[in-house]
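An example makes the point: we let one protein speak, the chain in one-letter code, the fold tokenised, and here it is:
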Amino acid sequence: MSLPQIFDQWIHFYEDDYLFECVWGSPNDYLDSFKKFNGVILPDFSLYRDMPFNMQISNIYRSRAIGNWLQKNNVNIIPNIRYGDERTYKICCDGVEQGGTIAIGSHGNMKCSTDRKFFLEGLAVIVEIIQPSVIVVYGIANDKYFGKYKERGIQIVQFDSEFASSHKKEVQ
């Protein structure tokens, strides 16, 4: 029996990892809830550049494994693409369909010049490999960094991080 969709929204996991580790440990506990939404942007497990490479690979795997399981259970997904450094730029694209929609998180990756460098280098690689038609961006997506992708016909759908949203409310 299929449950009715209730919420015209997508679930995302742009939170600290410990807040959604429970989904990895017991995904069946959340399946009925996931089915009430349009779909799920796959978990954004951390890939810190100073994290051991095997842990980075493991976190990419965990996101894809949850995605595979969700698809087998008739839940729409958007692959979240997370990378650490150049060692993970290509690996993070494995198993992602070309020409579709992907999601990335720019939040926390744009202030520091080193973080921004790795973020933008990785973004260029994933766009070349995956050739997405749509990129959903959690965080900033200004034309300085995303304009060239818009010019190529890629739709950029940006939504503010919780941090940015809360600061906008304070200012208004």
Q: What stands out?
A: Residues 53-72 form the longest helix (20 residues).
